[in-house]
Amino acid sequence: MNETYRPVHAAAGEEQISVSLKEVSFGYDPEHPILQDITLAVPQGQWVSIVGPNGCGKSTLVKLLNALLPKSGGEIVICGHKLEEETISDIRQCIGMVFQNPDNQFIGATVEEDILFGLEGLCLPYAEMESRLHVYAAKLGIDHLMSKHPGELSGGQKQRVAIASILAMEPGIVIFDEASSMLDEGSRNELLGILQEMRTEGKYTILMITHDADEILAADRVVALAGGQIIADVTPEELFRDEVLLAECHLQMPYPWRLARELHRRGIDAGVAADEKELIDRIWPFNYNK
Ligand SMILES: Nc1ncnc2c1ncn2[C@@H]1O[C@H](COP(=O)(O)OP(=O)(O)OP(=O)(O)O)[C@@H](O)[C@H]1O
Known about the structure:
By secondary structure, the chain is of the alpha/beta class. Helices cover 39% and strands 20% of the residues. It has a 6-stranded mixed β-sheet with strand order 6-7-8-3-9-10, sandwiched between helices.
């Protein structure tokens, strides 16, 4: 196990824990466990990226949280509810999941119906449902698609609808399982902006399975899985500084980090820039002082 992994069980200080796993295990075939003794606590309001190589069990892990798959051992507590037969429906109300393929997520015959369907399940007053419908359709830029049948939408539009449907229910925990892989760069950045806004509200805990460097950098914390175990629990910066860990996770450094490393090798210590302008501002003095 990588030394960087620091298991966390209990609340640090007064922090409320949204997601807690203690020694959780699971195998599709009991003889071959996919996940072994996973222990993890995520405080309310935290944004966690879950990373790791293909097939290491990231999707399996998040499906255990709302009993889409049955854990074979250990304890899961979601928003104070211990996961048991009787608490599954309470727990499912606390968790919204957006998957990679939006086709599997449509229920309504139109976009509007699809968003309203989830809200009806929460038994909200009609005015509140209408208000959320319009707020989240506007946030995701899908107001003009409300009367469309899901079959008439592009992959990226379908994913925006799926995200709007989940966010409109305002679950305390939102899980994205490679949910932005269908989105173009602009839409992906918009989604990151929406999540950043949600983070400032402090009400949402975000778990995001991703291989995307920008999404990883946006998180508060990165949990890395490999070989059925958590091998690291670090900040995004710690991950991107650790070339061994990056290789274990099959990840690359973000472009500005690679550029900074190359410049450093050539004697220019410009640090990591967030964008092109900052990069030029940082490199310019080196050229100017020659
Ligand atoms: N329904 C299933 N039945 C049997 N084995 C499965 C099933 N779903 C997944 N697996 C296996 O479990 C392992 C973990 O799969 P999982 O989808 O959780 O990985 P992942 O880390 O999310 O992968 P990726 O990054 O490719 O999406 C893989 O070896 C996969 O083949």
